[in-house]
Amino acid sequence: MMIKVSIVGATGYTGGELLRLLLRHPHVSVVHVTSETSAGKPISSIHKFLKGQLDLLCEKVDLESIAKDSDVVFVGLPHGAAAQTGAALYKLGVKVIDLSADFRLEDLPTIKAWYGEHPAPDVLKKAVYGLPERYREKIRKAKLVANPGCYATTSILAGLPLMAKHLLGKGPIIVDAKSGITGAGRKLENMYLYSESNESIQAYALKGHRHQPEILQEWKAVGGTASELIFVPQLVPMQRGIFAVLYAPLKKKTNAEELQKLYAHYYAKEPFVTVLAPYESPEVKAVAYTNYCQIGVSVDPSGMYAIVIATLDNLVKGASGQAIQNMNLMCGLDETVGLR
Amino acid sequence: MMIKVSIVGATGYTGGELLRLLLRHPHVSVVHVTSETSAGKPISSIHKFLKGQLDLLCEKVDLESIAKDSDVVFVGLPHGAAAQTGAALYKLGVKVIDLSADFRLEDLPTIKAWYGEHPAPDVLKKAVYGLPERYREKIRKAKLVANPGCYATTSILAGLPLMAKHLLGKGPIIVDAKSGITGAGRKLENMYLYSESNESIQAYALKGHRHQPEILQEWKAVGGTASELIFVPQLVPMQRGIFAVLYAPLKKKTNAEELQKLYAHYYAKEPFVTVLAPYESPEVKAVAYTNYCQIGVSVDPSGMYAIVIATLDNLVKGASGQAIQNMNLMCGLDETVGLR
Amino acid sequence: MMIKVSIVGATGYTGGELLRLLLRHPHVSVVHVTSETSAGKPISSIHKFLKGQLDLLCEKVDLESIAKDSDVVFVGLPHGAAAQTGAALYKLGVKVIDLSADFRLEDLPTIKAWYGEHPAPDVLKKAVYGLPERYREKIRKAKLVANPGCYATTSILAGLPLMAKHLLGKGPIIVDAKSGITGAGRKLENMYLYSESNESIQAYALKGHRHQPEILQEWKAVGGTASELIFVPQLVPMQRGIFAVLYAPLKKKTNAEELQKLYAHYYAKEPFVTVLAPYESPEVKAVAYTNYCQIGVSVDPSGMYAIVIATLDNLVKGASGQAIQNMNLMCGLDETVGLR
Amino acid sequence: MMIKVSIVGATGYTGGELLRLLLRHPHVSVVHVTSETSAGKPISSIHKFLKGQLDLLCEKVDLESIAKDSDVVFVGLPHGAAAQTGAALYKLGVKVIDLSADFRLEDLPTIKAWYGEHPAPDVLKKAVYGLPERYREKIRKAKLVANPGCYATTSILAGLPLMAKHLLGKGPIIVDAKSGITGAGRKLENMYLYSESNESIQAYALKGHRHQPEILQEWKAVGGTASELIFVPQLVPMQRGIFAVLYAPLKKKTNAEELQKLYAHYYAKEPFVTVLAPYESPEVKAVAYTNYCQIGVSVDPSGMYAIVIATLDNLVKGASGQAIQNMNLMCGLDETVGLR
Questions:
Q1: B222, B140 in Cβ contact below 8 A?
Q2: Residue C141 and residue C198: Cα distance in Å, rounded?
Q3: HSE (side-chain half, CA atoms, 13 Å) at B173
Q4: Which of 3.40.50.720, 3.40.50.1820, 3.30.360.10, 3.40.640.10 would CATH assign to domain D3-126?
Q5: pLDDT grade, residue A186 (50/70/90)?
Q6: How many other C-beta atoms are found inside a 10 Å radius of the C-beta of residue A62?
Q7: pLDDT at C143 over 80
Q8: How many B-C residue pairs are in contact by the CB < 8 A criterion?
Q9: Interface test with A, best of C51, C157, C309 (most A CBs within 10 A)
Q10: Contacts of residue A192 in chain D, CB cutoff 8 Å?
């Protein structure tokens, strides 16, 4: 079986990572890659690791022929454009995995507050949130999957067992989240220059970050009662990786061993979530270039606060790897194919 | 006026940074540098930037001749050894600035719990905690100064105004603190290898970190009522810099503008503490290689949580720069000499 | 078909990279991993990315049982120890791929000059130099393969077409070679500490480097007449990658287009060597985490000097990836299996 | 004595570094800083380390008032614009130090070939090449100094003794030069993004680099007979630093000890050039944030090739530090003031 795959908007970092992973996938052939600004150029002139491996030229978008030639289309466009394109492709009957935020939120007023009016609310209803750890069965049948954000995947996975098991005490949950620089995409902005971000750390979005509603939506969906999420994203000088520390008040006193057991049990059957020993810290290095999320569980000395650390590669489990995991599910394959 | 300075234990990173800064200082001459393992070698063969600048040889420690020849001695030894040496030098009548943790804590049971029995409790009583923002006048008269730790300086400065102004609500304070790799000193351990720490982040000391009592001691001294400090230190792939995010519950609703004003006022006369605009994040890059601490003040949407970010260079304001600031005070100089 | 594979000396960086790649290989199962210092510990406690993926414990070496249980053994020991172990395993009849330098050189006096007396000269004669671009057919039949060094692979591939086509003029060839820090292995030495090697470059082995005879041996084997190789290795602050610039005097005036054509033709059928456009520089980034070597060909303005730049990942094509390429050949598989 | 200093074009990295160094200088006050794009903003909002240290606003350029208010003006504009501004300021009678390439080359046809027609050839004749190691006396009297490039300073200093002592044999000199990313200035181009340049190396300008004529001009001026310079610049993932390896054929056989002695003697009185022991490699780390150039001298085994390694900080000795060294000379100060 071969799945014919296209990527609309293939020149960004998530596009490059999709291609890196798809070339290894035993059941995929890539048929179209599009780029408005690089149409006509070989995709290997943008993602240079492709030289000698993939000979496709970037094309201008032609949704009809893409839909006709493909089984699955990954949409790697900026917010807004992604909604338009994703909706159009969905209506053309092809399976769509959108890597933007455009189909992730369900609540229209929330969407409006953070992103403005949604351009395709009818199609939005058909979208499934592409977190296999939660929606595996729905994803198998989905025609349109909203691939989760990298900060959101990390934070949601760090918090899910607390929410699902109703362990939360009163007070806000804090997520102090560090991201490698590819997390920002291939943007020509001053703060992403090597000479600005190397040997430095800075926080941003201190008045609020778009991933907050995404995280809260998924925590609530599993029974979470977090009144507030204080989310502080920070840029750290490394290529890849999200490293999130979640601080959560507990309803009753617990210890790290119990809590770790609960996490280990919750994720026992998950192929890509690994729960470490109590008080063990995960390391970005251990998950870089993999589709794994590693989670370390600690408790403060009073036993009333959980300290949960989760890490993953923002380009793999935080974007393109998870997108392929979703593709596998949508196409009836074992979800781990091409990802181990 | 020339101050004769010696460094006992000069081959570590703080020793190197002391020398870098002292060579620039208009009123200092360095007379002895000691090292047990490198005795006889030029100090410039250890700190290679000294080639062509400083011609001293490392000597074995001879406390009497050091005390005789020096006005001020910096002690850069490991914990335990520092207490012995610092106490002996103090008794020999020379001014001592100790960069270890050995004279920082006042409470003997706390010391015992974290470090074991203190070898010189009588001398300990004479020590002044070398944070000029708090103890400027005492430092001027001190014979023995305990130079604060880098994590502690950052965290204390981030929290002081909240404590002094009694703004704290109930619940623990969280400090999520990231350190560059020099923060660990020149240790030949696996986790400090380039290939281990580059492109990675990891937390450590998740069961408790020695800087916690130091931070709490100083917050309490100014009236702070923090019941608990959850302190999570993390290694980040950069050379220098501490970047600490403090999350503190507030007694009553406030906003970032008010809180920022309060911070700016509290530190208005401080030569090395800069308070940024509300919601502005400091950047490690802006303080690296300087003696400044930059502080950014934000408040969560509910107005009930302060988010205070502080950053400094662990080798300068977090160690050797602050030590020289203390030396300036102890010797009757303007505290900023050689540090701007 | 499943190949049973063991790794003797599995805790170094090449051992880790072997495991990363072998887990992806569709026809391999790993049966033994050994470590003297970590015997009894899970290999995933050393290479943390293995958590949840591979459950083996490190064992002490038992060559007989390893030979009995395995089709192929990778030897990842230090020089000297590798020769002993490799020879013993060879005599036990199992296929051996040695990643050290111990079986790379043919000439006994040269070996003696650089490494001392060879402990198993009889077995040495049976070894095949594991550079598939040169010895593909011999490797298919080999029982013992000496996997080339990372500097050597890069330099040899950069120079081979010049040598084979007899284009060399008089005078030494210069190879200015930069290596990422993993190139040095997992050594607890000062110069490999993050705080020493980050934000720095230094050259080393300025009196001569062990890879010189290896490079010259292979250049001569193809007809190269280089009288001398000036090889200057340098440590550069990155994780992975060799970036070698070769400067070679030419026998007659040429231009970059011709020379590039010649290189492209020479490597036309090679699955893992990519020749770029004339005057195009390769980038480490494009080959990191892959088994590819990219080569860029330029000529100086006079047309009398070739400037050939080659880059590869020292842990993949420069070590473990090439070892697996060799394993594929030795086992009758397509040499690219598991490496694309 | 206070020197009134202005900077035209102060928002780039060399502007920032000038300010960092000038603030430490005991005899300088900064009066104007200009920026077309940031006029009206505090300079500390661009160079954030200036917060709390320097309160100037960026101004639009007004050459007359700048000339009137200043003793010395540093010009930090792009090539072309710098020539215009530098010439105008020169004519207004103020001392000018230009950090661009516009006044570095003397030969008009060479200038035309690399940069196009020079806009002010009359003023060009008045310019002195600002390499104190060569032109100290001329600089003392100069009204217009062309501050050398960072690659050029490194390469020239590495080669000068060979040239001045007529040691060169036949054949091209090769300079393999690596630069940290700030060497490129604050340019919003793809290749300078963190995610592009981190964990990578690439060469550029393989058809020829603008610094070649600058280097050759200065080597010739001291009697050098280099027929050709093969110069290969490379970007390396670090903030600051040039690390150049020069390979030069020798007229007669020599050894490293002799050659090192010759270098040491040649630079014996230079305050900012340090010659290391034979076969010792300099390290970028040892010169970063200093105005020093460190040089290591080796010879190949045949004794017929010199291998000279030079390193400096591209923003200090390679730009702003050297500019201040020149300012000191032009103003009758000890040239090391503010730079140790």
A1: no
A2: 44
A3: 31
A4: 3.40.50.720
A5: confident
A6: 12
A7: yes
A8: 56
A9: C51
A10: 193-195
